[in-house]
Amino acid sequence: MYRFYLDVVRNRKKGKVQEIENLRKQLKKNKTIIEVTDLGAGSRRNSTNKRKIADIVKHASVSEKQGRILRRIVDVYALENILELGTSLGLGTAYLSGQSSNVKVTTIEGCPETAKIAQNNFEQLSIQNVVQKVGAFDEVLTHLDGVTFDLIYMDGNHRLAPTLKYFEWAVEHLSEEGFIILDDINWSKEMIEAWERIKADKRLNVSMDLFRFGILSKREGQRKQNFVLKY
Ligand SMILES: C[S@@+](CC[C@H](N)C(=O)[O-])C[C@H]1O[C@@H](n2cnc3c(N)ncnc32)[C@H](O)[C@@H]1O
Fold first, then answer.
1. What CATH number did the domain enclosing 190 receive?
2. Among the atoms of ligand 1, which is closest to the Cα of residue 36?
3. pLDDT 10s digits, 82-130
4. Complete DSSP assignment for 61-99
5. Selected residue with higher pLDDT from 48 and 105
6. Which of 60, 64, 77, 136 is 20 to 30 A off residue 15, Cα-Cα?
């Protein structure tokens, strides 16, 4: 835990993420409108299915601060097999792709138009260790049975029931030393409820509340504990 706090949460080293942040700046200026297919909790701001890329990057993409945490978990713990539920424009995926060539990120996106832009973004960043799957989580996850992941980043459907369902899948497919990261644990009443239930789960001994992220790990043999980490 102490190592996690110092090396992942408090670590202020910049790391090589400038290209990702340059891409974010470009996307923020991109006024192209695309038609999105929403398989998740929907938008709290928008009732149509037309979205400007600039708005998607502002409202749906991981922030630089959160992204750096994703990158450091992957690098510090030398994680290799990573799964992301919800690619969006691929900024979270880019952070998860880590520094080592041993990393492989599988990322799932239900909206084909959004996934196409993410693909262009990976090409622009010369990221080659990402496998993109386009389809509904429920469908794609059935093809990933039998695989275990070192990190599962749940950043898709922010409703209570689907979050609990994907969490159940994640626990069954998590490697012994792996991490589950849940985004937006304080986004809504349903997500607060989801996090309360998930952190009480007896199969995972360590849970960490970073306000936006909830991070869990099995850590067998360790006493069950929940940490609230400020950064
Ligand atoms: C918050 S965004 C992901 C942001 C991204 N992980 C990042 O860090 O930049 C959530 C994405 O999940 C996708 N999504 C939500 N529910 C889904 C589902 N059931 N199946 C497939 N994709 C889904 C949405 O289309 C949306 O693009």
1. 3.40.50.150
2. 25
3. 999 999 999 999 999 999 999 999 999 999 999 999 999 999 999 999 9
4. SPPHHHHHHHHHHHHHTT--EEEEE--TTSHHHHHHT-S
5. 105
6. 60
pTM for the model stands at 0.95
> For residue 107, which atom of ligand 1 is closest to its CA?
6
Q: How many domains does the chain have?
A: 1
How many Å apart are CA 119 and CA 126, to the nearest integer?
Answer: 10
Ligand 1 lining (C-beta closer than 6 Å): 39-40, 60-62, 84, 86, 88, 91-92, 108-111, 114, 136-137, 155-157
Q: Ligand 1 centroid vs 17 CA: distance in angstroms?
A: 22
Which two structure tokens, joined as six digits, stand for 172? 């069954």
- The alpha carbon of 155 and the centre of ligand 1 are apart by a number of angstroms equal to 6
- What token pair was written down for 184? 């937006």
pLDDT of residue 218: 94
